[in-house]
Structure formats: C-alpha cells, structure tokens
Amino acid sequence: MGTGAQRVSERRGRYLLALGAVVALGVWGVRQTGALSGVEASAPQSAVCHVASGLQIPAMPYDPASGRDRNAPRPLTEASRCSVCGMYVARHPRWAAQLIQADGGARFFDSPLDLVRYQATLGAAASVSTDAAVVRRYVTDYEGGGWVPAEAAFFVVDADVLGPMRGPDVPAFASEASARAFTQAHGGAVLRFDALVASLPAH
C-alpha cells in the first residue's frame, strides 16, 4: 500500500481525469447542439460563444431601401454574429471582418482569421450555391477603425496580441507603415491577404 501522500496524489489524478471528461463532454454537447436558445438569441450582450459545428448563422440579406451599394460593407449591429463561432462581433470592433455574397447577403466574423477559415470551408463544400459565392471581403483597420478591402489590407501574423477568442489572431491595417509599426511593439510579420491565406494550414 502506498504512503498517504501517494494516495492523495492518486485521488487528485483521478479527479482531474474525471473533470477533463466532464469538460470534454460539455464541449462535445455544444458542438452537437448548434441551435441558439431563445435567451441567447434575444440577448446580444451575452458572453456565450458557440463553436462552428452545427451552428447556422444566416447571412444578413441586402436591403435595397438602405441606398447602400450592394457590394459595400455593412455596418455592425448588436445582433451581428460571427459565422464561424457565433460570437457577437460588435463586442470586438477593431477585429471585425465581413464578406459579401453574390446574392447581396453579408456574413460577419469576429476576426480576419475566422473570415479566412470560413472561406476555406466554403471552398471545400461541393454544395455551395452560386448565390453564396464571395464577391467582396472587408476587414477593420485595427489602428483607426473603418472597413478596408481585404486585398488592400496588411496583416500581422505571429504578434504577441490575443484576438477576441483569447488566442493568437491576425490584426489588419489600412497601411503598411501602421502594420510595421505594430510589429515593432508586438513582434510578428506583415503579410498581404493572398499570402495570409496561403500561410494557413488547410481545414
């Protein structure tokens, strides 16, 4: 029989394993549920962030009465949700991104990284309709705000900043000078959009 200290250590190990199993089952359950509860759907201030699996976030349809160009970026609202994780995008406006579909619908993302991830999934799907094809991509200028076409932006990868999901992310800048100044303070490297897409692993 082991010493008291060994028995405590063994019990602690069993507890941690059990706790890990409970957490894993909880995450699996969220992935499988996907549907938004009535409370979550009506409470934009909720901190709940859903994962992508099974989650259906509809595109914001184009409103001709707005007088806005069909392919222009759309303003964020409290109800705007990330099409990858379900996060309320307006909670982190300096990271926000969006794409415009061929049918005029807009999809929002809590960061440029999630926009790229969504497009990678979209491109791999054989059942995507022509209406859902991407015609424009916009990211937010991390420094000054405002929408910037993704192809015109400068992205910083591998910096020491955390994105909305509290993990490594990719801030976007309207000018190369701003992006390079950011790397002086936070590290990382500057990439254009096509290079950013090519640098990420396939999903």
TrEMBL record:
<protein>
    <recommendedName>
        <fullName>Nitrous oxide reductase accessory protein NosL</fullName>
    </recommendedName>
</protein>
<dbReference type="InterPro" id="IPR008719">
    <property type="entry name" value="N2O_reductase_NosL"/>
</dbReference>
<dbReference type="Pfam" id="PF05573">
    <property type="entry name" value="NosL"/>
</dbReference>
